């Protein structure tokens, strides 16, 4: 009951945030150079043509009215039409989003799978050679631009070693993409690298903090061994703040996808966004912005819910 | 055969600035069934000894010497040998029950973990055993509680869980490191009863690390006193606490604020004399007589007619007598147990009383307290101007008797702060917490009012209301005659600049990025805009001198100072605007007793000189008893009772206050043993009443 109430409240809050996002996107749409008419009709269009277009599209009506109209079309899943691809933006996103989700979720999963034990191990071996080596590598990985890292990986693994193809799977559907896992390796690794760097740092700090907590001493005083203390107590306690960070990391993941998809020619949202930006295809750009914003809101919501499950104190409003 | 044997233990910590020795050549032993108390102030190395005994010192510690637990050597032992010892041969109870348990594991599981660490028990059996242990440590509905998370339990219950973990495998030795320091007195008494019972039942030896002499008197068989990493004195508890041989022990005991307690007639204990005083205070000189039964109590001196002079407020009379309870009490108790030889002067010294003042009064061993009180009492009490009685106006002790004269001077003035039917609520809807309900209290000019109660009783909230930091949901607050609820803007700021604040934690309440001088000058920058930098510097130097800090400290950072110095910086900051009211919220509870003593002395002396009123929030009844003329007891956000300190704390009208007072352990093993018995008896009586 309490949980249901909480979920309803958080969902309403999320909706409010998304509504604000639509306002921002709407304003951006209207701030386009020359307005949407110039964008669609091109630089050669006459003033009459533009006036006619604006009237036809309802662009001469007051802004609030237009906003309500815009919201209405959004609710119907209409995000406008691409200037260059001549296709509904919603349809483009519908095709690309699952692939990007696959890439980002896989990257995040692989990244966390490496980052969490690495961070814990570093904390346990604090200020010993292993800690220094991993810390150095994390900083290198974190400060290397994704595109550069990707290029290096391509050079090493496709040109020199020839282990993996240089292109991501080109399949139309998700099934076709998954059917070619070998080709997915490099994009996922590239996407996961910075994730490992950042989250192993979080995990290291969080674990260190927990290792110095009194409850660890209590467990040791009760005769528990280091390994048991780590897995039974420290891991869970250290994970809670990391989980919270994950929600805020969603836009970063999408940002990474932008580069990775372009680099490996992977037909996802990132590539769509990239190409749209190259050709000033504003409806597509803003559609992507909207989708990524919603994904971020959903990501933080999920992180909150997960944290509530992991940490009973959150539910009681004590932490 | 001892369960714990420590021989010439040395511990030093490696830091960036070199090795810091923490323990130097300590030798101790704890025999089965015996409780050894390890006492000392912070930094004396007592906790380090306890951790060394468990092999729990951090990696930066270098250990020498021998520590043997049940015959196994601990120093240098590999981790798996230690793991087998910990929780089975010896186990430990820690200071902070709030953080000692894993917040994300259910308490039953945490207890079961300790069981399964040492015995091949199935999960289900361990869980069942954990429930049994919870029952044994007195947790109600243990089946249900076993699946609770630590945050769902109170501090006392959490400490019971930690104790359940510690006794899960019936260890030979229980190490308790300040087990009750973080708890309320009533809970402290229960936890001590529990530990004592468990140790007695199973013959477990106990190493009790504490700074609280009352706890020592209540619990220990033997005492070892530590100073700078060495044991300076050890012996049976009666010897060490009543006839301390080492100068440091005497000083330490002398600094302990002692709760004056009412005792049964016929036993010459401190309470007798003090009751006499209180009686006299309420202008019944005759009543002092019957109360004074023992040989040492010197009834006549107390009951002198001068005391009961008209115009005396009762607390005015009673107070000074209690400003030396340390002296009176011990001396009298000695007389009571018929060992007069050791008493008077020996105990008087650590009490901080200057010899000159004591000597004339010391007629017999027990007469010290009243003897000193006698002359001073009458005079300031009858509202003579301050300083009329130089013998009393010494810096040595807390001297409310003199401060009293300040309050007598302008007693007809309006109260500096008045709370009328104030209610405060936090949170909304179902989560609403009624922090205060219809609380009324006043502080008159120059007067000190003590605000006492258990944690959560609302005493800090009441102080914050007086400071204008919390707006009451209903009721009115008047500060210096103005309605705080109505005054806004500049006038409000000006009004509030008349209030100084000292808070509990001197580390957290001073900005680490400011120098001491800047910290003290800040109120001047805010409230005295016209002041030139030179004037400000001069004023800062002036107040630093007032609180007895050298002027050079102004350039230092707060972190470079000791706890007591920092708290005096807080005090200087509070006084820099010459406030008419000082709000002190647990100003000394984070400090060692000897430091607490000096800080309280400074406050008392300044109060006498500057005449500010004081709202003094504390959970420590002994400190309040020495410091405040009137006391307000809060319970669950309501005023439980209030009145003159001596009347209220000596003869409480309500059961709650009685329990509160009874739970405070006094640092005299003989007296404390009897008080414990009485408290127990009254609890059982109360229990049967409740069930009947």
Automatic annotation (TrEMBL), chain A:
It is a multi-pass membrane protein. It is found in: Cell membrane. Coiled coil: none annotated. InterPro entries: BPD_transp_1_N, MetI-like, MetI-like_sf. Residues 97-303 form the ABC transmembrane type-1 domain. Its main location: membrane. GO terms for cellular component: plasma membrane. One of its GO terms (biological process) is transmembrane transport. It comes from the Bacteria. This is ABC transporter permease. It comes from Streptomyces spongiae.
């Amino acid at each position: 009951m309490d949980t249901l109430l909480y979920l309803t409240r958080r969902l309403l809050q999320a909706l409010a945030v998304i509504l604000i996002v639509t306002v921002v996107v709407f304003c951006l749409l209207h701030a386009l150079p020359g307005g949407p008419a110039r964008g669609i009709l091109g630089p050669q269009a006459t003033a009459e043509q533009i006036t006619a277009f604006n009237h036809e599209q309802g662009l001469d009506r007051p802004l609030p009215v237009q906003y309500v109209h815009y919201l209405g079309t959004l609710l119907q899943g209409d995000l406008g039409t691409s200037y260059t691809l001549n296709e509904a933006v919603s349809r483009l996103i519908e095709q690309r989003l699952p692939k990007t989700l696959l890439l980002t979720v896989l990257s995040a999963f692989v990244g966390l799978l490496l980052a969490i034990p690495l961070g814990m191990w570093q904390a346990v071996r604090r200020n010993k050679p292993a800690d220094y080596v991993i810390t150095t590598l994390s900083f290198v990985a974190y400060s290397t631009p994704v595109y550069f890292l990707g290029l290096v990986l391509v050079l090493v693994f496709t040109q020199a070693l020839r282990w993996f193809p240089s292109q991501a799977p080109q399949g139309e559907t998700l099934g076709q993409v998954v059917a070619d896992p070998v080709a997915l390796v490099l994009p996922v690794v590239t996407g996961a690298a910075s994730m490992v760097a950042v989250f192993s740092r979080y995990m290291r700090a969080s674990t260190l903090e927990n290792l110095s907590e009194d409850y660890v001493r209590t467990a040791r005083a009760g005769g528990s061994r280091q390994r048991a203390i780590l897995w039974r107590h420290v891991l869970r306690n250290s994970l809670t703040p990391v989980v919270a960070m994950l929600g805020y990391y969603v836009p970063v993941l999408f940002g990474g996808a932008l580069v990775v998809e372009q680099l490996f020619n992977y037909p996802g949202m990132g590539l769509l966004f990239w190409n749209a930006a190259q050709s000033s295809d504003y409806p597509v750009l803003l559609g992507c912005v909207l989708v990524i914003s919603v994904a971020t809101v959903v990501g933080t919501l999920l992180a909150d819910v997960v944290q509530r499950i992991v940490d009973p104190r959150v539910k009681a409003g004590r932490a | 055969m001892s369960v714990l044997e420590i021989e010439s233990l040395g511990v030093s910590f490696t830091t960036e600035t070199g090795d810091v020795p923490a323990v130097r050549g300590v030798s101790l032993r704890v025999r089965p069934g015996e409780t050894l108390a390890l006492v000392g102030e912070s930094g004396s190395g007592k906790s380090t000894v306890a951790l060394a005994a468990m092999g729990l010192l951090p990696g930066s510690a270098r250990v020498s010497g021998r520590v043997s637990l049940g015959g196994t050597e601990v120093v240098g032992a590999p981790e798996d040998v230690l793991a087998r010892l910990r929780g089975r041969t010896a186990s430990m109870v820690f200071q902070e029950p709030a953080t000692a348990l894993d917040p994300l594991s259910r308490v039953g599981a945490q207890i079961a973990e300790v069981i399964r660490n040492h015995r091949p028990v199935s999960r289900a059996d361990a869980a069942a055993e954990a429930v049994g242990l919870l029952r044994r440590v007195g947790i109600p509905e243990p089946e249900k509680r076993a699946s609770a998370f630590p945050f769902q339990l109170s501090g006392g219950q959490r400490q019971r869980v930690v104790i359940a973990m510690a006794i899960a495998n019936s260890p030979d030795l229980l190490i308790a490191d300040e087990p009750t320091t973080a708890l309320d007195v009533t809970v402290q008494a229960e936890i001590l009863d529990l530990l004592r019972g468990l140790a007695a039942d199973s013959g477990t030896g106990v190493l009790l690390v504490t700074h609280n002499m009352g706890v020592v008197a209540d619990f220990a068989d033997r005492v070892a006193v530590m100073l700078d990493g060495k044991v300076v004195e050890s012996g049976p508890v009666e010897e060490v606490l009543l006839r301390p041989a080492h100068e440091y022990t005497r000083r330490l005991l002398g600094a302990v604020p002692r709760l004056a307690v009412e005792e049964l007639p016929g036993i010459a204990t401190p309470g007798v004399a003090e009751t006499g005083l209180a009686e006299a205070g309420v202008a019944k000189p005759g009543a002092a007589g019957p109360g004074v039964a023992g040989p040492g109590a010197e009834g006549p001196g107390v009951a002198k007619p001068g005391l009961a002079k008209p115009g005396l407020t009762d607390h005015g009379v009673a107070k000074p007598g209690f400003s030396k309870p340390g002296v009176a009490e011990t001396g009298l108790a000695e007389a009571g147990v018929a060992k007069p030889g050791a008493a008077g002067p020996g105990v008087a010294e650590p009490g901080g009383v200057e010899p000159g003042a004591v000597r004339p009064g010391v007629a017999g061993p027990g007469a010290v307290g009243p003897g000193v009180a006698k002359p001073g009492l009458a005079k300031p009490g009858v509202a003579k101007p301050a300083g009329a009685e130089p013998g009393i106006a010494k810096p040595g002790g807390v001297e409310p008797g003199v401060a009293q004269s300040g309050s007598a001077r302008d007693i007809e003035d309006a109260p500096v702060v008045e709370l009328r039917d104030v209610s405060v609520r936090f949170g909304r809807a179902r989560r609403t917490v009624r922090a205060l309900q219809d609380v009324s209290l006043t502080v008159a000019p120059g007067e000190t009012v003590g605000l006492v109660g258990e944690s959560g009783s609302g005493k800090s909230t009441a102080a914050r209301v007086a400071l204008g930091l919390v707006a009451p949901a209903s009721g009115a607050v008047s500060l210096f005659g103005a309605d705080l609820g109505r005054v806004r803007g500049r006038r409000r700021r000006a009004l509030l600049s008349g209030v100084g604040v000292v808070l509990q934690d001197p580390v957290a309440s001073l900005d680490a990025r400011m120098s001491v001088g800047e910290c003290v000058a800040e109120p001047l920058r805010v409230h005295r805009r016209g002041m030139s930098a030179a004037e400000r510097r001069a004023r800062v130097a002036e107040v630093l001198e007032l609180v007895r800090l050298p002027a050079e400290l102004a350039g230092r950072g707060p972190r470079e100072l000791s706890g007591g110095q920092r708290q005096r910086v807080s005090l200087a900051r509070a006084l820099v605007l010459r406030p008419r009211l000082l709000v002190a919220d647990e100003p000394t509870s984070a400090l060692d007793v000897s430091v607490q003593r000096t800080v309280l002395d400074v406050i008392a002396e300044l109060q006498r000189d500057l005449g500010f009123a004081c709202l003094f929030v504390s959970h420590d009844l002994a400190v309040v008893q020495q410091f405040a003329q009137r006391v307000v007891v809060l319970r669950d956000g309501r005023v439980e009772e209030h009145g003159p300190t001596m009347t209220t704390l000596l003869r409480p009208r309500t059961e709650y206050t009685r329990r509160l007072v009874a739970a405070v352990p006094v640092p005299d093993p003989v007296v404390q043993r009897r008080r414990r018995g009485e408290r127990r008896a009254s609890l059982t009586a109360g229990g049967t009443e409740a069930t009947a």
